[in-house]
Amino acid sequence: MANVSVNEELTVKMNLDAVKELLTGISCDVKVMEESSSFVKCSLNTDFKSNGNNIVKLITFSESVEWNLHISGTPIKLEDIHISSTFQADRRGVDIVVSAARRVNLCEGVSVTNNIVMTRFHVLENISIDGQNRRILRSKLCKGVIPFNCLHNTCIKCQSMTLFKPRESEKENKQAPQNEAKTREKTPEKPLLSPTQEKIRELIPGATDEMVELILNQANNARKDSRGRRWTQGMVTVCLQWYCRSPQSYEQFRSSNFLILPSKSTLIQYKNRVQNCTGFDDKVFDDKVFDWMLQEVKRRNLPDSAFTGGIIIDEMAIQVDIQICKNNDVIELSGFVDIGEEGNITNSFKKGKNERVLGTHALQFVFLGTNGFRFPFAHFISDGMQAPELYPLFWESVDRLRMYGFNAVYTCMEGVQCSRTFMHINTSAEKQFTTDCPCNFGKLVFTMDSKHVFKNSK
């Protein structure tokens, strides 16, 4: 009996040694990660990334001539995807196992669109497949893989647990019979005379278009409930600008009942529709949203001097807190440190780990034209900006402004240690606080905010 057990142990050892030798020469993407007297583990790389992390398939060959598969630490039940868990300890058997593991398709979830409803049973992920980035919703019951005979790249759990909003045409078709029945029951009433622009101009000769729009808004919303009032774009724009400048004065005038104005919650909903992303928001420099900067200059009929100015760098302390932002039906968390892709990677290298830290300061870049035109175009969240982190952000902002016709000839910063170090990196007293700009091959002047310096000197 002793001889039998010894022979079995030798056979198992010979099988695992043969598996290890076969794995080392089978393919360049297969690497042996761990081995012992009872198992051999190897990794298989994929082109799938989730939230910036590479998804790796881990294959374990055990002494009982069985193998199992783990994907990102999650065990996969091979019988659910119709794969045998046994193998032969030869080249053909190992090739079959590696080929089967390579052909196991990963679930790609459901792409986030405007008609997708996110619930508490979903998880939001940013995935990358062959270099293409997408935002998806994944069910919490998702196993991460799909069967070989599946026609879609999404598992059944993610498909069945995803809800879609009904389209406007479907809503109208459902409400049409109900509305027809209600109209039959109601007795016909005389239609109220609605004010028109022609009538208002007859009553008030010389009235401007803005005055006519204001009167129409008041007449249309005077007899409506507060939840059923509708406002024109011009009315919402003026009220939103007023509220952003002084919420207290807006609420005080609104409560005086001289005019019917949009409520605070309505203005906040319009304000939150604009996504304020950290970093250089591509929407600011996008042809479709040129009103943000370039069209703003043209709308005001500003001279060409508005395209020449400087970059104001301002850092302020903020309250350390996590904010929950809702973008359509997707809920995101904000308030973490984000100083650009290069800065985030550098911080990970310095700390030796990849972690999310709550921000304590907000760094803002503002373009100030020589004629007084002011436009904030980027902001970052940090836990105390350092000069090496500020260096690439500053020159990238100069380059992006130059691409769309805005020429930065100076920069103004606070007199803190970070700003002084950043100035010494770029210039010196011998250069009279100027440096050669690599974007337009001209001179760029570095200055300090005199008010901030005098305030700190006291």
Supply database-style keywords.
458 residues; flat; six-stranded mixed sheet; alpha+beta; disordered N terminus; eight-stranded antiparallel sheet; 14 helices
What this model shows, in words?
It is a single chain. A hairpin with a 3-residue loop joins strand 1 and strand 2. Helix content is 35%, strand content 25%. The model is unreliable at 1-10, 186-194 and 283-290 (pLDDT under 50). The chain is of the alpha+beta class. The chain has helices at residues 2-24, 91-102, 156-160, 168-185, 197-203, 209-221, 233-245, 247-255, 264-272, 294-299, 341-351, 387-403, 417-426, 450-457, and strands at 30-35, 39-50, 53-62, 67-71, 74-76, 105-106, 110-111, 116-117, 122-129, 132-139, 145-146, 163-164, 308-317, 323-327, 330-334, 361-369, 374-382, 407-413, 434-436, 443-448. Helix 7 (233-245) crosses helix 8 (247-255) and helix 7 (233-245) crosses helix 9 (264-272).
Please specify the SSE layout and strand pairing.
Blueprint: H1 2-24, E1 30-35, E2 39-50, E3 53-62, E4 67-71, E5 74-76, H2 91-102, E6 105-106, E7 110-111, E8 116-117, E9 122-129, E10 132-139, E11 145-146, H3 156-160, E12 163-164, H4 168-185, H5 197-203, H6 209-221, H7 233-245, H8 247-255, H9 264-272, H10 294-299, E13 308-317, E14 323-327, E15 330-334, H11 341-351, E16 361-369, E17 374-382, H12 387-403, E18 407-413, H13 417-426, E19 434-436, E20 443-448, H14 450-457
Parallel strand pairs: 13-18, 18-20
Antiparallel strand pairs: 1-2, 2-3, 2-9, 3-4, 4-5, 6-11, 7-10, 8-12, 9-10, 13-16, 14-15, 16-17, 19-20
Helix pairs in contact: 7-8, 7-9, 12-13
